[in-house]
Specification:
The protein is α/β, with parallel strands linked by helices. The protein folds into 2 domains: 3-119 and 271-282, Alpha-Beta Complex (Aldehyde Oxidoreductase, domain 3), CATH 3.90.1170.20; 121-268, Aldolase class I (TIM Barrel), CATH 3.20.20.70. 42% of the residues lie in helices and 20% in strands. The chain has helices spanning 3-21, 27-32, 54-64, 93-122, 142-151, 169-175, 178-188, 202-210, 223-233, 265-268, and strands spanning 38-45, 49-50, 69-72, 79-80, 85-92, 130-132, 165-167, 195-199, 215-219, 238-242, 260-262, 275-282. Strand 8 (195-199), helix 8 and strand 9 form a beta-alpha-beta unit. The chain is elongated and about 70 Å long.
């Protein structure tokens, strides 16, 4: 993340996480550290994976105390291994202790998503299909989680409801039909916005094509129907498939021929990467 992104989008979220953990004081730290004392602690990797979120980790400490220094031996996107020393944080020991859990929560979560995304993206290597995330993110963590997907080799679908038009089953139900939903979207939305339509069968696909949708999402369709959908589309629209896509089942979709595969599992089901701050000592 660059400094502008951090300041505009991340700082307030990080501060909220710190406020959640420190409502008035860190009573444990204040019990054993009555005065400032400079120290340092090591960031240790305890599991193989892909690291992501180092700037966020660092920012936790500098928001508590701008004099805190963090030196990393790796960068976002690097493969890390169990036992690797990833960096050192140096500053007021009270800050190191009070910020430890929040900093690790961000870094472990983001690194876990990057690790899982990398493992899924590898299964699509050799195809034209791009791996997308979804809006199935942890509340107030979307900016971090979608960044982690990119670090892991995936791509971002729309960021939020203001970012793009995606007519799903309930939107179509509200409008009355695929054709009417697309017509209304074209009438309302700025011309620069693409219109994506979710379809559940080939009849809906044909209707979406006739309505000139830009992107067609093939939702929970069989592999056979998806192949037929790609054939019928013939490049008239981009195609995306979705529906409970995970690392365990994505390989069956590799040769379908769709442009995109979206997977909510990238953000809602990725386990954390085990990391730790160890060997705190005064300097």
């Amino acid at each position: 993340m660059n400094n502008i992104t951090m300041t505009l989008n991340a700082d307030e979220l990080i501060l909220n996480a710190l406020r959640e953990d420190i409502t008035s004081e860190d009573i444990t730290t204040n019990s054993v550290m009555r005065a400032p004392k400079t120290g340092e602690v090591e960031l240790i990797c305890k599991q193989d994976g892909i690291i992501a979120g180092l700037d966020v980790f660092k920012r936790v400490f500098t928001l508590l105390d701008g004099a805190t220094e963090t030196v990393f031996h790796v960068k976002d996107g690097d493969a890390v291994k169990n036992g690797d020393k990833l960096g050192i944080v140096r500053g007021d020991i009270r800050v190191l202790l009070s910020g430890e859990r929040t900093a690790l929560n961000f870094l472990q979560r983001m690194s876990g998503i990057a690790t899982y995304t990398r493992s899924v993206a590898k299964l699509l290597e050799g195809s034209k299909t791009k791996l997308l995330d979804t809006r199935k993110t942890t509340p107030n963590m979307r900016v971090f989680e979608k960044y982690a997907v990119r670090v892991g080799g995936g791509y971002n679908h729309r960021y939020n409801l203001s970012d793009g038009i995606l007519l799903k089953d309930n939107h179509i139900g509200a409008a009355g039909s695929v054709k009417e939903a697309v017509r209304m979207a074209k009438e309302y939305a700025p011309f620069v916005r693409k219109i994506e339509v979710e379809v559940e069968n080939l009849d809906m696909l044909r209707e979406a094509l006739e309505a000139s949708a830009d992107i067609i999402m093939l939702d929970n369709m069989s592999a056979e129907d998806m192949k037929e959908a790609v054939r019928l589309t013939k490049g008239r629209a981009e195609t995306e498939c979705s529906g409970n896509v995970t690392k365990e089942n994505i390989a069956r979709l590799k040769d379908i021929g769709v442009d995109y595969i979206s997977s909510g599992a990238l953000t809602h089901s990725a386990p954390i990467l085990d990391l730790s701050l160890k060997n705190l000592h005064a300097v």
